[in-house]
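User: quick one - fold this with SN-glycerol-3-phosphate bound?
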Amino acid sequence: MKNYRTPSLVINLKNYAEIYSNYSLDISKISESVANETSVEIIVCPPNPVLSKIIDIVNIPIYAQHVDDSKIGSSTGSIVPELLKSINCPGSLINHSEKRIPLDEIERLIIKFKEIELTSLVCAQSIEEVEKIAKLNPDIIAIEPPELIGSGRAVSKVNPKIISDSVGVVNQINNDIDVLCGAGIMTAEDVSIALELGSKGILIASGIIQAKDWKNKIIELATPMKNYL
Ligand code: G3P
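Assistant: Sure. Structure tokens for the protein plus SN-glycerol-3-phosphate:
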């Protein structure tokens, strides 16, 4: 059973300096308040060192940005799926463009996530990769053309076809998988177009983290999703 709702606004904090110190907690609390006000599912992905602290304080889904395909026990320095489970972290990004892993590792992580009931949000850079990953049956696939990440040029405007094609390919393989999109999303209009193309939400970083007013920007981007609740 899915333990997240769509449409989803997934905010990846990456390692932006703006969220150092207590600011990753601040932006998570703001996300929680917007989620409560709008009823939109907002998921925040802080850097791993502050995951546990934020999970204990904030009552929205908090995902890891990365998880290792390593075993419990002698795997120094790795973050393993069971550790995420033990701190009540409900899911993780996997294979983000900035932290790519081989397909066989993605497959093992998806299997492990199902076994211990974590949500797998697997990123893909191209239609070919979307197709390969869809065959592994993750919960969510996010299509993100790498050249648009952090560019301020929205995938939904610059390359709408990659979103509709991803939705089409995934639906043919397993229409239980939710497709998100990301890269360069900045405005409510960018989000609206993505949703019209069949995306079940967005994965975003700089458009929110580098905004002057986090709360206003999160409200702006969550608002078009209210039409799909
Ligand atoms: O994980 C989100 C992402 O890679 C998109 O980044 O800065 O283009 O929203 P950005």
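One thing worth noting: The domain at 8-228 is CATH 3.20.20.70 (TIM Barrel).
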